[in-house]
Amino acid sequence: MTMTEILSKYPKAEYIQPPHGFCPGCAVPMAVRWFLKVTGEKVIFVMPPGCASPSVLFPKPSLIYQGQRIKTLAVPFGAAAIFSGGLKTALTTRGDKETLVVAWAGDGATFDIGLAAVSAAAERNEDIIYVCYDNEAYQNTGNQRSSATPWGARTTTNPLPAPKMENKKDIMSIIMAHGIPYAATATIAYPDDLMRKVQKAKSIRGFRFLHLLTPCVAGWLFPAELTVKVSRLAVETKVFPLFEVEDGAITINKQPKGIPVEEYVKIQGRYRHLTQEQITQLQVGVEQRWNQLQYLANYGK
After folding, report:
1. Its pTM surpasses 0.85
2. How far apart are CA 245 and CA 132, in angstroms?
3. What CATH number did the domain enclosing 267 receive?
């Protein structure tokens, strides 16, 4: 399906307007664009510090609809889930059951600093959509290591010759363990899949979690024009599978081509130091996680 055919299913309105403060080639504004195409303007974004919050406010507010700013609430780093749940409760108390409350947070604010708050909101089944835009490090402050940083990647807090030697935290398994109504992975390389999942999340009540892979030009060290290619390779190499979990049932949304992981890492400077033996080790880990996901998806069917 072409991009024109995909967009024909959604309103023509555009909600993110230039100039914005995102880096050239950043995947986050693309994710925001596809997300708002589905939700429309009746939404409140709750944003902790990260790449997104200052970028939609500077050099001037860029989330606009018909001349009116889309409501955005800036909150402390670890508090997006808590603020979102409280805000949704307040809106419901006032009789507003239509406005979507969306926590839009990076991996640092989700995997690390905000994990307890995310867990608490999920356990209470707060009626919010929680979006983690994952660029696999604290990129807004210069590419420091987070628990979302993959094995073998270089960061400013893992300078060579000591890249990160711990695996990326499996945030989806953690979220799934809470028994929430809906969770899904997505990336901007497959906007039809992303937008369908946003539509499904919009139609469900309770805690919904979207894990969006958003490659970072500055931190991952690839040319700005390759953002979509990098996103696509993440899926096709099985590094970032596309799947969704609805009431505990896992559905794999795309069968990857099985392109070697080497094709994914070789165009990113953060992996340039890896030896062939280390790339093989990375491939083994990817295959193990993929096989585990397939087993879980097929269990009981």
Report:
1. yes
2. 16
3. 3.40.50.970
